[in-house]
Amino acid sequence: MSNIHIKRRLPPLSALPAFEAAARHQSFSRAAQELHLTHGAISRAVAQIEERIGVDLFVRRNRRVYLTTAGQRLFKTATETLNTLNQTVEEIHRHDKASPFLTVSCEPSLAMRWLMPRLGGFHEKYPDLNVDLRMAGGPIDLLSENCDIAIRRTDFGIPEDYHVTHLCEELAGPVCTQDYWRRYSQEDLFNANWLHSRTRPNAWNDWINTSDLEKESPKSEQHFDHFFYALQAAQDKLGVAIGSVPLVSDDLESQRLIAPLGMEETGYSYAALTFNDPQQDPRIKAFCVWLREQVNQV
Q: The pTM is what?
């Protein structure tokens, strides 16, 4: 079957909304009321589709209409198609530079420990811009995830067509409470309970490789599903975790946690990933400028 023949078999797309409404209501009159058209306009639209595809879509009986089997099939596809088109148009408007929304994807631990406590300040500065915050980590397809910005730790390959706005270098080192360090670890870190996370399983080994310590097995260890939980456990005096800046910046400043052995660069950084240069979109530009201001205060 030729492409020309296939195109000729397609129903007139302008008539699909009338057909979908008539099929959903099983009534031309109700469809006309919903679409603010006349009964005749609905009838003509349905007739155009029937003529184009060569089959009856409705059975007309006793001033009522009922979908045929072909009509039921087309109704299902038409509903899905119109819903998809509507969703796509909404997404286009939502991500347009004039939109009052900005969809931001951020790594969960960074979002909870650093970004969210600061978002109130952003809303005060830009009250007409609503941030839709979504928590996710690792590689991201901005288009399929419907995101304007992704804030990520650069520990994976970033697509070449993404624009990367550098935010800050990452620093890491053992963190715990002052009380825990005083009681358990001041003389020997290996006497402490080491807190691990399954999302950053190599954090301790990576840090030891940059330190002057010889590799030894700690006296005790404890594992958590997420980095956030390991840091919270350290704050709750359960042991020593490898914390990173900016994630523990607020904790260090408030002395909820201390970094008794200092912090070292990990070789990774944090960045904002966007489709295009943030300068091209005032929403994204405002958010990236604000992000840079916040990390410069760390």
A: 0.71
Cβ neighbors of 201 (< 8 A, separation 6 or more) are: none
Residues with Cβ < 8 Å from 234, sequence gap 6 or more? 175, 176, 177, 180, 195, 240, 241, 243, 257
Spatial separation of the C-alpha atoms in residues 262 and 243, rounded to whole Å? 11
CB 166 within 8 A of CB 192: no
pLDDT tens-place string over residues 43-98: 999 999 999 999 999 998 877 899 999 999 999 999 998 888 887 777 676 667 76
Distances (CA, A) of 136 to 80, 150, 267, 296: 28, 9, 22, 24
Q: What is the pLDDT of residues 148-172, one digit of tens each?
A: 999 999 999 998 999 999 999 999 9
Of residues 295, 286, 289, the one with CA closest to residue 131: 286
> Measured between alpha carbons, how far is residue 177 from residues 56, 136, 211, 231, 249 in Å?
76, 28, 21, 11, 14
